[in-house]
Design a protein that fits this description.
The complex is a heterodimer. By secondary structure, chain A is α+β, with helices and mostly antiparallel strands. Chain A has one domain: Trafficking protein particle complex subunit 3 (Muramoyl-pentapeptide Carboxypeptidase, domain 2, 2-Layer Sandwich). Helices cover about 50% and strands about 15% of the residues of chain A. Chain A has a four-stranded antiparallel sheet with strand order 1-2-4-3, with helices on one face. The two termini of chain A are about 20 Å apart. Chain B is of the alpha+beta class. Chain B folds into two domains: about 325 residues, no CATH class; about 150 residues, 2-Layer Sandwich (Muramoyl-pentapeptide Carboxypeptidase, domain 2). Chain B is about 60% helix and about 10% strand. In chain B, a hairpin with a 2-residue loop joins strand 1 and strand 2. In chain B, helix 2 packs antiparallel against helix 3, helix 4 runs parallel beside helix 9 and helix 13 crosses helix 14. Chain B is elongated, with a radius of gyration of 28 Å. The chains are: A alpha+beta, B alpha+beta. Chains A and B meet through helix 1, helix 2, helix 3 and helix 7 of A and helix 11 and helix 12 of B.
């Protein structure tokens, strides 16, 4: 089974629904997908054991969960953090995007990735604090941009310390992340994902 | 009298020399991946289209088996003693050469060597048989266009080059090389391991040029002309099965394919020697494919049957594998990611959302965006019925990540598609069928396919049974008008 079928399904929806409705639908699907993938990743039967700061974990989580959901066809060229006061943002640049490869549009169309990123960060950060995460797509290959860009923002809740600058200078070890993805795929990860997916809408497994 | 005969023989040998050299040159050049191009008055060598994929390698070996079996099972039927006979097996050469391209031509040469190995003609001069039969297939391969023999001019060209020139070259190469080898004193048999090789029956030049040459040339002229009918009749089957070599150009990765091709050709030659040794040791050498005793030729018939079964098997699997290679990327994630997507989608879709329409769009998109760009050449030949029977089930198989079967429906233009373990309704309980997306998908795929062929079909697809309602499989009734 090819991830392109999923991309074709996303573009099929694009041709079926009005733009606003499509955006809401895809964004919502992306959020739910990320919740399912994250739930499987964070399940106590499987532990993400990184010796790193919270932000490194978040950054690697984006890459790992993205690879698990969208395959190697989704290629991140950059994932980085910015922080100003209590405002934090995660910038993700995707130079090969499976979602918009069959769509030509005058606006950004990768709502499923927008929803996926905000849902993923929401689920992850909720373990530590009650935060509201918001994501937007800043550039999209479907409208002629060289890459798809996503910006995910949230505010550190009052009372929690803002992250220190040195923690934000993250260098992600590509090799280590790829090894981690391979390690996860070698487990019964997807069985867990599917169980979560079915449980999600009350279907007996 | 003797002097007259000798001068005639010398002339024949002189005529055969450039043909032998040219035939060897063409064989080597083509096998190395080049071809001779005629542009205006210039002749040059150009790099040929890469066709040495894995299907080609199988095609070469199967052509060899089919051709050897055809030759061995149909010994020459004598029409005029010492003047002409008919050997129906030779009719396969132009067909194999045209359908499989250079691998088919090489397979024909190898098949002749294999037939020699048990029919009693195996010797140093078998090299001429290899090259001569290669040319017998090669010239029709070059002369025929795609689709074959649709114009009078092409039929005339075929009659001249494939019907006359090609058999003459074949006869000149075989007899000329035989004459040269025997004249050089190379009349000893090829030794075998663990036994004594039978002696080579050396013939005089008058027999070579007077009888053998005439027999080969006249037989091949008749057979190559009959082969034209075989090519026209069988072209649709082979092309619809994805075996026509031109349709596969650039479709598969053929890096290193030529090396494998050459290695297997060498292996084929070695196996011919093994076959020669075994047939001598078992006492069968020279008893198969030399008489009209068809009971004695049963071994050849078996070979032919095995070869044909092989071709049919490749014709089925090559289609399957083509779809597989397009649909399954080597670096893709599991189908279960789709299940996650669909599960999430169900939550947010409006209840009145018509999934048939989504499925129809999905099928149309899959065809136009993924299949058509890669398989355009192959798909343009296929009828809607063949597409549904042979292709749809493979697409569905990988779309659904489970086994599907396509059976005939109530008439010739309807089919029943059974989907086991459907990704859409897995674990779902419902009073009504819920896999509208799949029904729409088959509809979209079929109608988009027909559109690209310029046919505007009224396609309908309905899910009649669904696992969600407690049935064993999901069944979709697909029909087109």
């Amino acid at each position: 089974m090819d991830i392109r079928i999923l991309a074709l399904l996303a573009s099929s929806d694009y041709h079926t629904y009005p733009p606003t409705e499509y955006g809401e639908l895809q964004s919502s699907i992306g959020k739910r997908c990320s919740e399912i993938v994250y739930a499987a990743l964070a399940d106590k039967g499987f532990t993400v054991d990184f010796t790193a700061t919270l932000y490194q974990i978040a950054s690697e989580l984006v890459r790992i969960a993205g690879s698990l959901m969208f395959g190697t066809e989704l290629q991140f060229s950059n994932v980085k953090y910015q922080a100003e006061g209590d405002s934090c943002s995660l910038h993700v640049i995707v130079n090969a995007c499976p979602i918009c490869q069959y769509i030509q549009s005058d606006h950004a169309v990768c709502y499923i990735l927008t929803g996926f990123l905000s849902g993923l960060m929401q689920a992850f950060l909720s373990r530590f604090a009650d935060v509201k995460v918001h994501s937007i797509e800043t550039s999209c290959i479907a409208r002629g941009d060289p890459s798809c860009g996503f910006e995910t923002n949230w505010r550190i809740p009052t009372g929690l310390p803002a992250p220190r600058i040195q923690e934000l200078e993250i260098r992600i070890d590509e090799k280590a992340v790829n090894e981690k993805v391979s390690e996860i795929l070698a487990t019964d990860f997807y069985q867990k994902v599917v169980v979560y997916a079915r449980r999600r809408h009350g279907v007996a497994t | 009298m003797n002097a007259d005969v000798h001068s005639e023989m010398n002339l024949n040998t002189v005529i055969s020399l450039p043909m032998i050299v040219l035939s060897f040159f063409i064989l080597v050049v083509e096998v190395l991946g080049y071809e001779i191009a005629f542009q205006r008055s210039r002749i040059s060598l150009v790099k040929a289209e890469a066709i040495f994929d894995w299907v080609s390698v199988q095609a070469m070996l199967l052509s060899a088996v089919v051709y050897a079996g055809a030759l061995a099972s149909t010994a020459g039927i004598t029409l005029v003693e010492s003047l002409t006979w008919l050997r129906p097996g030779n009719v396969m050469a132009p067909l194999l050469g045209y359908i499989f391209g250079i691998p088919g031509c090489v397979g024909v040469g190898l098949g002749n060597l294999l037939a020699d190995s048990f029919s009693g003609y195996y010797g140093v001069a078998s090299l001429g048989g290899f090259v001569g039969n290669f040319m017998l297939a090669y010239i029709p391969h070059k002369v025929l266009s795609d689709p074959p023999l649709r114009r009078t001019g092409e039929a005339a060209r075929y009659s001249l080059f494939a019907g006359v020139v090609s058999p003459l070259i074949c006869a000149y190469v075989i007899v000329g090389l035989l004459d040269l080898i025997w004249s050089a004193g190379l009349t000893y048999p090829i030794p075998i391991i663990g036994g004594v090789a039978p002696p080579v029956q050396v013939q005089g030049e008058d027999v070579l040029w007077g009888t053998l040459f005439t027999i080969i040339a006249t037989n091949d002229i008749v057979m190559n002309l009959i082969a034209a009918v075989l090519v026209v009749l069988s072209f649709r089957y082979f092309s619809e099965k994805g075996l026509f070599w031109k349709d596969r150009v650039g479709l598969f990765e053929s890096k290193g394919g030529r090396t494998k091709f050459l290695a297997l050709l060498l292996l084929g030659v070695v196996l011919c020697y093994v076959s020669y040794s075994l047939s001598v040791l078992s006492g069968l050498y020279g008893k198969i494919g030399r008489s009209q005793d068809y009971v004695g030729n049963i071994f050849g018939v078996l070979f032919f049957a095995v070869g044909l079964v092989g071709v049919l098997s490749v014709s089925t699997n090559s289609v399957k594998n083509q779809i597989l290679s397009i649909l399954i990327g080597s670096r893709s994630v599991d189908a279960r990611a789709l299940e996650v997507y669909l599960s999430s989608r169900r939550d947010v879709l409006k209840k009145d959302a018509q999934d048939e329409i989504t499925g129809e769009r999905l099928g149309a998109l899959l065809f136009s965006k993924v299949l058509q760009p890669s398989l355009a050449r192959l798909l343009r030949r296929i009828r809607v019925q063949v597409f549904v029977d042979d292709y749809l089930k493979h697409i569905m198989l990988h779309m659904m990540n489970s086994k599907c079967s396509v059976k005939k429906g109530i008439n010739a233009k309807s089919r029943v598609i059974s989907v086991e373990d459907c990704v859409l309704c897995k674990g779902v309980s419902s009073d009504v069928p819920v896999c509208g997306l799949i029904a729409g998908f088959t509809k979209g795929l079929t109608s988009e396919f027909a559109e690209t062929k310029g046919e505007h079909l009224a396609v309908s697809a309905t899910e009649t049974e669904c696992k969600a309602t407690g049935r064993g499989v999901c069944k979709i009734e697909l029909s087109w008008q």
